Amino acid sequence: MKKTIVLFLISLFTLQSCNINTEIIYHKDAASSVITDIDTREFMAEMQAMTPDSLQDEKFKDMDKFPTIWTSMYDMLKKEGKLKTENQDTIKILKKFFLKSVKEDHKPVPIGYSFKMDHITPNDYELIKNFNKDEKLPFDQNVLNTWDGKTLTINTDFFNAKNIEEVLQSKGSKEEAQQVEGMMMMFFKNIGTTLKFESKIKSITGKHDWLKQVDDYSVRIVYDLKALYDKDSKTQKRR
Known about the structure:
Layout: H1 2-13, E1 18-26, E2 32-39, H2 41-50, H3 53-60, E3 71-72, H4 73-79, H5 88-96, E4 97-102, E5 112-120, H6 122-134, E6 146-147, E7 152-153, H7 162-171, H8 174-187, E8 188-197, E9 211-215, E10 218-222, H9 225-229, H10 231-238
Parallel strand pairs: 1-8
Antiparallel strand pairs: 1-2, 2-5, 3-4, 4-5, 6-7, 8-10, 9-10
Helix pairs in contact: 1-7, 7-8
């Protein structure tokens, strides 16, 4: 069952020309909620333009089956007869993991996808880590930052797309895995994460070029994909 979930998420994250935006909301009770939007508008327009009209229905028919309202992964798997576990910890996480597609002008082909995790407690995150051991999940690593309800400790080592990269590497051949890093800039156009709080931010200690305070309640991380994956850029920085 884990493989079913992972393969679906990989199919979303490997669409070329994707814009990925994540918002993590930190609650006063030390829980947090996460929502990720994947904008595939540009990619789908390119795909449709390259597909003959006679093949459009066949090529994109599976995309029309995806729910357009928030639906838990638990309900999706149960409806499809793919819920193969009775483990209560796994079921608890599946019930908190929601997905949906975004459509425009009632067109059958989605222009994006979203998924969210509602009110995840520190204990839930431990379950997610265990769930993630066998099959890597492409979530924003900033969800693993330490939050106690008052102070957020931001680990700048999480300012990368390694988790997504490892997912892609784990599902391909050895040769394909070696090529993943070089293709990351082709897969993704923009990746950004907003960290939002229910109370006003009192102070920020330390700084990072990619992190900026947006307003009294939030900060924004915008990943420099060129710095992460452009070999020429990396070489120049070392000089």
